[in-house]
Amino acid sequence: QSALTQPPSASGSPGQSVTISCTGTSGDVGSYNYVSWYQQHPGKAPKLMIYEVSKRPSGVPDRFSGSKSGNTASLTVSGLQAEDEADYYCGIYAGTNNLWVFGGGTKLTVL
Amino acid sequence: QITLKESGPTLVKPTQTLTLTCTFSGFSLDTSAVGVGWIRQPPGKALEWLALIYWDDEKRYRPSLKSRLTITKDTSKNQVVLTMTNMDPVDTATYYCAHRPPIATAGNAFAMWGQGTMVTVSS
Does residue A56 belong to the interface with chain B, where contact is any CB pair within 8 Å? Predict the structure, then answer.
């Protein structure tokens, strides 16, 4: 059960767009659409931002979008705002063998 | 409104057993396809899924920790309990419980999380 691979950091200026990648294998990201993304501010609990690759829970701004290609999922934050500065984790349910796996996290800095 | 709250000891000694309780409201573990999971996060590190229990009492565990983990539920009290045996300093982490709603609602994701409880393992 290996962790998904994320870049440790990403950054962008207010108003810009930034994309965070999440790379797995053909056995997890490549096979399942249960990819989710979580936002975590310092000292706070994670918050679900995207589920099933590209769906947004109620209340999540449409500036947040998700996609997947092959073994790599991506989270794009458009129109960056100061409050988007946080850690972002991808996660996946990869079936009854791999179950739930998270990425290593990406620290997003708004310059 | 769904809420979850973790409770348990803040400090345990090496080799001891940790028992954490998740008390929730706003949903029922009697509802088909609902689950409650436990996830931990060592200081400054990534999230790590530990265990999940479904409405029908089916249980899933992280393979590498399966021998040390037990998850149970008390539907009448709206509680889920996680026990972890033989605690080690590397188990020092914030432990979260989280609601996994039916797949049609949030696609096997953890839709709502508790605030977390920090557990330190030290003699």
Answer: no
Structural contact between residues A40 and A89, judged by C-beta atoms closer than 8 angstroms:
yes
Confirm or reject contact between A67 and chain B (CB < 8 A).
no
pLDDT in tens, chain B (123 residues): 999 999 999 999 999 999 999 999 999 999 999 999 999 999 999 999 999 999 999 999 999 999 999 999 999 999 999 999 999 999 999 999 999 999 889 999 999 999 999 999 999
Q: Hey, what amino acid is at A59?
A: G
Per the CB < 8 A criterion, the answer to whether A71 and A29 are in contact is yes
Cβ contacts of A57 on chain B, cutoff 8 Å = 106, 111
Nearest-neighbour CA in chain A from B58: distance (Å): 12
